[in-house]
Amino acid sequence: MSARLWLLGLSLSLCTVSCGTSGDREIPKSICGTPVDPDLTRPLVASTDDWHEWNRVDRSKRITAPCLILSGDDIALRLRFSWDPTVADLMYLAKETGPVSGVAEPRNITFAYKTIVGTDGAISTTPCKTNGGKYFTLTLQVPQIGLMDQTHRKDIEKFMRAYFPATLKTLGCR
Questions:
Q1: Which residues have CB under 8 Å from 14's CB, separation 6+?
Q2: Measuring CA to CA, how many Å separate 18 from each of 26, 28, 77?
Q3: Run of H or E including 55
């Protein structure tokens, strides 16, 4: 009988290890309608438990809208897609105190598109003529990263260098 209990315990242990108990899922290959390598997303998120997307972006209507990636009830990534008639002042947007475009400690980077990267997000903009405006601006915020945490700046930059051009390909800019 003790052999049966031992085998039952071993079976349950193996299932726990192989099946996982955290609900952790793989990161999708597309975020908010833009394909992106999951290896670029992984360093930005603490967990993929109950990973789901709340997306209000309609590329055909080109109306400013958010897309949230949630892990349970927590926002893992906040993206804002914006079409405007004039070019955005990225530093002004980054220094906003509200939750829309604020980015801590923003710095300009050398990139094909006007871009700033902070400790907890990034903002990029470029001309993109559509019915919604002449310029497209994408804001990325990573609220789970502490404002003073400098360790993710390079991860955010790598993500934005891949995600922003990939997003532009989905927009139908003229």
A1: none
A2: 15, 21, 28
A3: strand 51-55
Task: Say which DSSP state 44 is in.
Answer: G
Give the list of residues 6+ apart from residue 67 with CB closer than 8 angstroms, or none.
31, 32, 33, 53, 54, 55, 56, 57, 78, 79, 80, 81
CA–CA dist 59, 65 (Å, integer):
10
Which residue type occupies 53? E
Q: How many whole angstroms separate alpha carbon 171 and alpha carbon 83?
A: 10
Per-residue pLDDT of the chain (174 residues; tens, 9 = 90+): 444 433 334 343 333 333 443 445 688 999 999 999 999 999 999 888 889 999 999 988 888 999 999 999 999 999 999 999 999 999 999 987 667 788 999 999 999 999 999 999 999 999 998 877 899 999 999 999 887 788 999 999 999 999 999 999 999 887
pTM metric for this prediction: 0.83
Helix (H, G, I), strand (E, B) or coil at 15: helix
Please calculate the CA angle 102-103-104 and round it to the nearest 5 degrees: 125
Query: Which residues in 74-112 are b (16+ Cβ under 10 Å) and which e?
Result: ebbbbbbbbbeeeebebeebbeeeeeebbbbebeebebe
